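Q: I'm writing up a methods section and want to include an example of the input and output format. Could you take the sequence below and give the corresponding predicted structure tokens, formatted cleanly so I can copy it straight into the document?
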Amino acid sequence: MKKVDAIIIGFGKGGKTLAADLAKRGWKVAMIERNDGMYGGTCINIGCIPTKTLIHQASETACLTHGDKDAEKRHYREAIEKKNALTAMLRDRNYHNLADDPNITVYHGEGRFISTDAVSVALADGGTLELTSKHIFINTGARSVIPPIEGVRESRHVYTSTTIMQREKLPDNLVIIGGGYIGLEFAAMFAAFGSRVTVLDNHSDFIPKEDRDIAVSVKAVMEKKGVEFRMNARTESIRDTENGVRLSCHDTEEGYSYEIEADAVLLATGRRPETTALDLAAAKIETDRRGAIVVDSRLKTSNPYVRAIGDVRGGPQFTYLSLDDYRIIRDDLFGNHDRNTDDRTPFAYTVFIDPPLSRTGTGEDEARAMGMDIGVVRLPAASVPRTRTLEAPDGLLKAVIDRKTGKILGATLFCAESGEVINLIVMAMKTGQPYTFLRDFIFTHPSMSEALNDLMNQPMA
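A: Here is the clean output for your methods example:
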């Protein structure tokens, strides 16, 4: 049994940042990662970086291929090669950032608990190592959910969000099962590359978490770009054919069945915390019904020696929240114990469709359901001068304002560059500024941020 100052299971964003910090403080750190293709975590290998790289490449398809199908396929292969080169470079850099530190040992193997303060590592090159520490951190991320559809595991044409980015051939016809944010990003991307895309959504309402006017706008824009949506769609079976794959579906509202032919099927049915191999029971660590590790506001589990970081603890799955988990742990170990998960709202998210959809805080529908006294301001994206120079006039901007205090309760931006502009709104909310702060702020011109002048100047509904 080897004793170390800290054990980190999983080479993700929060864990790797914590490892580097602890090493600088002189701690001896053991970093355990079972997959040598995941050094650096989900974001740089199978998440944010590769998907956004491909989305950027997809946006250039029209001007580079001019509708030529063979050219589209060549451009797609080149995009995959660029994505692979980038992720390989980042993975190597992340590995050496830790492995080259004399205070950090990276173990390629699978870790599992053998007691409350000890972990056994089945090393990839053979053998077993046992480690013990009073500080253990779980950062194992999440995995794709495989729905219980007949034939889904046997088909050679079914992919997850991870494996479809390894496919070098552009599908002529792609079916996406799941109309959530992951499904929408891939739908927009493959449609831009030139695929015919059909999204099967088992909900009756499109993106039900968003306000209905935003949902209508997003759906209309995506349909204009060639994406077909089938709502109330339950996929009952998948079977391979001579030329591809056939899906048998049922419309749960109208009651009829139908079939769809495709070259490839993408499962975008959610992600679940990756805890199956950890043997959490041996460490007396509690999980919820979805398998997420239960933590308190400072990320401590039911085991006083163990904390959980990032997607494995459930909730919103964003790299920047995993990074903030690291900050909370750093403050709890070495700081004033001021930070916790309760004080980091509001935060924003962005869905990288075209244009991107960004959201923070409380939506209009939610606020009205709560009986809040609100005012709502809206602005068509086409009225913002910058959208004209970008040739991206689609979309809608809106904000929800407390009529009594003038404080911004939430905002949704479905427009070009919304992923950048939404951060300005979050900062205004976090610092307690009224909506008039953004209404009267001096922004550069022409920019998308100056849209906030006009948005906050609209008459409240």
